[in-house]
Design brief:
With 240 residues, this protein is of the alpha/beta class. 34% of the residues lie in helices and 18% in strands. Helix 3 links the parallel strand 1 and strand 2. S-adenosylmethionine binds next to helix 5 and helix 9.
Length: 240
């Protein structure tokens, strides 16, 4: 994740320069059981290079819609959502190997059938998804890249918001959360220039209250313990 990622030698990048992953791929060495899951389960769950025009076809059991979570980290939110709504298909995207290892272990242990995975950068994935194929895109606590010279590495850019708007069906939602005020402002400024994603807030409680069905991740718990105040931004894909 971002703290330490700079020291790990992530390459500097300009906003909109293509790929959007600059964090660490790996922290701890995988245990043998985890490595086995990477070799056996992950290939079965990884999205095909050419996703189908109707993303619901990715799931063996019928699902009524498909949602994407970008950078699920430890997977707490994605797993809870998939368990709560077995009739929804979820695509979970996470390039950090140890986060993916946790996800694979939970899917294997619980036999969860409504999650497909993308173990890499979400930016090229978004470009490959069919237009209007998703009902929701979640981006919670993206790596903050707080230093001025690092900000261009942030996942949110005009290009990624445009790709999210393209991938969402009209009426679908893009949900964002961050504990870094500067990143919230950065995102709102770019949302203002993306007319297809309309911020729904009408009063402060709309961005200070967690999103519907919210599950606190370890990352958020740490942010709260450190005294930081999260903001929750909900936008709706317009029909235009
Ligand atoms: C600060 S963590 C937050 C994790 C989780 N969303 C949460 O709220 O607990 C940010 C996560 O985004 C992932 N990430 C960073 N860049 C990404 C990219 N381009 N595509 C997908 N995931 C990315 C990181 O690997 C990391 O796990």
């Amino acid at each position: 994740m971002a703290e330490g990622a700079d020291e790990a030698g992530a390459a500097p990048a300009r906003e909109g320069s293509g790929g959007a992953f600059f964090g660490r791929r790996k922290a701890k060495k995988l245990r043998p059981g985890q490595a086995d899951l990477f070799a056996t389960l992950l290939p079965r769950l990884t999205l095909p290079a050419e996703p189908p025009p109707d993303l619901r076809a990715l799931f063996a059991a019928p699902v009524r819609e498909v949602r994407l979570e970008i950078g699920f980290g430890g997977g707490e939110h994605l797993l809870a959502a998939a368990r709560a709504e077995p009739d929804v298909g979820f695509i979970g995207c996470e390039p950090f190997v140890n986060g993916m290892a946790k996800m694979l272990a939970a899917i294997g242990r619980e036999g969860i059938a409504n999650i497909r995975l993308w173990p890499d950068d979400a930016a090229p994935l978004l470009d490959r998804l069919p237009a209007a194929g998703l009902a929701r895109v979640d981006l919670f606590y993206p790596d903050p890249w707080p230093k001025r010279r690092q900000r261009k590495r942030r996942f949110v850019s005009a290009e990624t918001l445009s790709a999210i708007a393209r991938a969402l069906a009209a009426g679908g939602t893009f949900r964002f959360a961050s504990d870094i005020d500067d990143y919230v402002g950065w995102t709102l400024a770019r949302l203002e220039r993306e007319p297809r994603l309309a911020w729904t807030a009408t009063r402060a409680a709309d961005w200070t209250s967690p999103h519907e069905g919210w599950v606190r991740t370890r990352y958020e718990a740490k942010a709260l313990a450190a005294g930081r105040v999260p903001s929750y931004i909900l936008t709706v894909r317009t029909a235009g």
